[in-house]
Every structure is written in C-alpha cells, then in structure tokens.
Amino acid sequence: MIGRNCIVRLSRYKNALYQFKKLGVVKIFSDNLAEAVNVTASQVRKDFSIFGISGNKRGGYQVEVLIEQLKDILGKNEVQKAVIVGAGNIGRALMNYTGFEKEGITIVAAFDIDPHKFNEQANVPIFGIDKLNSFISNNKITIGIIAVPAVAAQQVLDLMEHAGVKGVLNFAPISLRANNNIVVNNINLELELENLIYYINASARTKE
Amino acid sequence: MIGRNCIVRLSRYKNALYQFKKLGVVKIFSDNLAEAVNVTASQVRKDFSIFGISGNKRGGYQVEVLIEQLKDILGKNEVQKAVIVGAGNIGRALMNYTGFEKEGITIVAAFDIDPHKFNEQANVPIFGIDKLNSFISNNKITIGIIAVPAVAAQQVLDLMEHAGVKGVLNFAPISLRANNNIVVNNINLELELENLIYYINASARTKE
DNA sequence: CATATTTTGTGAAATATTTCACTAAACAAT
DNA sequence: ATTGTTTAGTGAAATATTTCACAAAATATG
C-alpha cells in the first residue's frame, strides 16, 4: 500500500501545476516541481514512477497532461456528495467554504441536534440529526464531515458508517474508531497548534 | 531531528490520557494507550523512550505524571498569543473556536483587508491589515493564523515573518515559502478531502 | 550529421521508522 | 521466601522511505 505522504505530495504537485498553468507554463521539469513543493527532484520522479507517470528525457512533463494524470490518480472524475454533521462554528464555515466545489465535492445538507439551528430553506439545509440515516441512504451520500464536539463524534461516526458513508473527514479533536469499511481522515486543529508550538520551541532551542 | 509523526503521536497520547483520566484511570499500560491511538504497544514505548519518559515494569505509567511529562515536551507551559489574518468563513470560525483556549492559545485580534469587516469592539477585534505589523511587534505575538485566499497567503506570511511571528498555521490551500526563522504548519482542507477520496477509491478497488 | 547537454527513470545505497523479541524489573500469589 | 506472571525498556531485525548516481533518451548546437 502506498503511503499517505506520497498521496499528499501528488496533491501538492497538482496544486503547483495549476499555478504554473495559470502563468502560461506548458512544459515542466522535476526540479521545478520539486522546488515549488519543497521536496527533492528525485522524490518527484520516484513518486511519478510509482504511478507510471512518465515524461520525456530532456523534455520534462507536459503541464496539462500531468494535471490530468494526477487528477485521474487522485480520483476526482465524478462529483461526490457530502453532508456535514454539526452546525457550530466549524460546521457553518465549511458549509460556506467554496473550495470544496472546486474539488468536485458538493455539500448537500447539514445536520444538528439543536432545533434552533434547523433551516430547511437554507442554501445548505440544516436538518435534525434523526434524519441523517435516511438522508444518507436515499441520496447515496459517500462523504461525511464531522464537526461536532469530541464527546459526540464517535456516535456520529457510527451513524454515518451504518448509513453507508464511505469516507469521513473528522474535525472533532479525538481519535475515532472505525472498522475498515470506512476511511477516516482527521483534522485536529488543536493538535496542529500544539505541534506548531513544539517546533517553535525546538527551533528556539536549536538557535541557542 | 525528531519526525513530525512522532510528535503528532505524543499529542494523541496526551488526548487519550485526558480521556482515561476523566474515567478515573490512574495507571495505564503501553498497550492500552496503543489501542486508544491505533498504534502498536512497542511504538508507544519507543516514543516514550526517545523522550526519556519511563514507567514501571509491570506497573505501567501513572496517568497524571504522564500527562505532565507530555505537556512538558509539547511545550504548553505558558499562554501564547495569536492573531488571525482573514475574517472570512474560516477566519471567523477560528475566532469563535473555543478549543484553542484550552490549549493555552489566546486569539487576541484579527485582521482583514475589507473595511466592512472591521470591528474594534468585538470580542476578538478586527482591524485593517495595515495595523498588522505594529500590532504584532507591540504585543509580542508569536503565532499567526492565515485564513485568506490562496493568492494573498504568501504576502501575509511575509508580513508576519517580518513582524516577528515565530509560527504560522496556514489554512490557504497553497504551499508557502518561508525561511527557517519561522515554522509553518499547513492545514489544507481541499487536500484532505482529495486524500480521503483517494483512499475511498483505493479501498473500493481492494474489495473487488 | 555528429557531438554536447539536459533531464528522465530507476536500481542501489543510505536513512528513517516500525516492529520484534528478549531481558530484567515489579508485583502477585502461594 | 520462592515462584510465576506481567510489562517496560531496548538493541537488533525488518520495513519503508528518501536520496544518490548513472545509463539512456531526447533535444540542442555547431
């Protein structure tokens, strides 16, 4: 199985390529990409070789072609539907976040436990959590986003898993437990900050 | 230098330990922690050994002591001040996010380019971006959070770096370039979703 | 057209990370 | 006390990841 870091790099390459394309760049070399993404050129070539992406010796890679190949590997050829559970700060921000559409993900509904937050007329309608299960199965939702407090997160994951969601993005600051029918990616803001502080301190120590 | 994954695991151990503590657990073994965090028991022990954390053979580790040791390593013994640049969806969500306080980080101000968003009276006041530099130096801000669109992100980072910020949490979906006076952690929501989709597809392929 | 240069693709080497497996310490039981 | 059991600590082994270095292909140059 291919490591997560490798897949993350592919995404970064693709991002960088979009920028190069915007600047009118047509042909690119491994070292240009490497610099843009902060890795070595052989890392870039090795990553590509793993997925059978090939360029031309002395000719580099065609930006357009490479983008398509990466899109293909990263699997965004059909639009996927997602729901958010939790209409708090983070949940609401994600409902209005435009970056997901660009990536082929549409957020079609949100769910919360608090009736004051219900709003079936909104752009992204907010329903009661009791509707989650039927909504997911009726609308063939593949992706769930968890934006509830830590205590409720495991329960929400179980609901989603049971309803047939295939992948979950979890914003609750807790390690969730899932069987291997479902993929869970954690985005833990507190952990990221803590991590940042560690490296700030480490870098201060190094300079002494 | 110690790998990022290792530091991330330390944070996860600490999180798990808080939960155990809440349940009244006093003494814990490497395999309990391992299970909670989804790693092997020897990974736990190896991680601890790197940082000179030791327990008792057959007696495991004292939950309270372990939490303190981890807090110490992760460096959260003094409250740090942070500012947010960008008062859009993500920026506003982060201003109201209560999880940071718990981790010893206080968000003291936000900055935006749009005068409609200015609000010096708010709980977290929102100023014009032109005030960023002086605010950071006058208030000895160590942490910056970038929540602006991708095109503006590099510029904001440069401003922060120049003003003396030590670490940055970047939410803009772009690879930023910084010299090594400053630590940058990226949280790229689009990339995480893309990554999730890759693994959903990969897991579907495996099952065929 | 021949030669020089550049850049890919990739095994092999070097590093880094994780797991294994065993020793010894701590505690429990008899 | 002695014996048995559990679990930390840790070198060594196994894996995984990254970098090196060079042959071969593509293009440029004279």
Keywords:
homodimer; 208 residues; alpha/beta; Arc Repressor Mutant, subunit A; Rossmann fold; 2 domains; six-stranded parallel sheet; two-stranded antiparallel sheet; 9 helices; 8 strands; 49% helix; DNA-binding
Give an overview in words.
Two copies of one chain form a homodimer. Chain A has 208 residues and is α/β, with parallel strands linked by helices. Chain A folds into two domains: 71 residues, Winged helix-like DNA-binding domain superfamily/Winged helix DNA-binding domain (Arc Repressor Mutant, subunit A, Orthogonal Bundle); 112 residues, 3-Layer(aba) Sandwich (Rossmann fold), CATH 3.40.50. Chain A is built from nine helices and eight strands. In chain A, strands 5-4-3-6-7-8 form a six-stranded parallel beta sheet, sandwiched between helices. The first copy, chain A, has a two-stranded antiparallel sheet with strand order 1-2. In chain A, helix 8 links the parallel strand 6 and strand 7. The model of chain A has no long low-confidence stretch (mean pLDDT 95). The interface between A and B is large, with 61 and 60 residues. The first copy, chain A, binds a DNA duplex (30 and 30 nucleotides) through helix 3.
